[in-house]
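User: Please predict the structure of the protein below. I'd like the answer in structure-token form so I can feed it into my own downstream comparison script.

Assistant: Understood. Taking the following sequence of 245 residues as input:
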Amino acid sequence: MTTCKRLLCSLAFLTCLINYAYAQTSNPYILAVAGKPYLLRSYLMFEGNKRTHVISVGSPEKISYSYDLKQGALLQVWRGQFVDVTEMWKDRGEPQLAKPLGAVLVLSAAPSIAALTNKDVAWPDSIVFDNLQNKGYVLDAHKMPVFLYSSNGAEISDKIAVPSGADSIERTISITNSKEELYCRIAAANQIEVLKDHTYRVADKAYSIKVGAGAKAFVRKTKNGEELLAPLPKGNTSLTYSLIW
């Protein structure tokens, strides 16, 4: 084969690759939310790791979030369109990845609830897979899920709601039958500023947290920055806070 023919073959092959890549991205599968919330189970790439037990929830108010069912972790929130499911529904959908759309506010993959021997112990990065038992979810009056699971010997419900007309989400974590004091990590960032009225400014003003008046929340320093924690006394208790951005 002459040099000219080899060059033409290479160009033809490259053109095919470009056309294929364009076909994969030119007609994305966008999942829209209308009328009632949409709940989507999928894999999710989060901070370079493929999370396999994730549910993303889109609301008619165009505020969405992703939740790790095996960590009880609120991974991220965002406004705007819901998700791109091209890698789930197009062709074989082998990656099974959902891609959030809009401006995503990344939070944390660490568990929200943990048992600490004292308030200065480092927060765990994860829960051992079998140490959190999922019990599904129920839908509230607005068709938003309330996640149910057991961990650290306690029964936990985790409700994440989108108040009508608000630029926020409201999260209520309820604990029953806890045999020991637990803690909730509400936020972790390089800096958390304490404001008035039980409000905290997080991560260079990226978002704010407003905690219920009786929560006894406190900020502590860590090797990576600061954390906002709230104690959850043993027995039956609950914690409500709003994330505003």
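That's the full token string. The CA atoms of residues 194 and 200 lie 5 Å apart.
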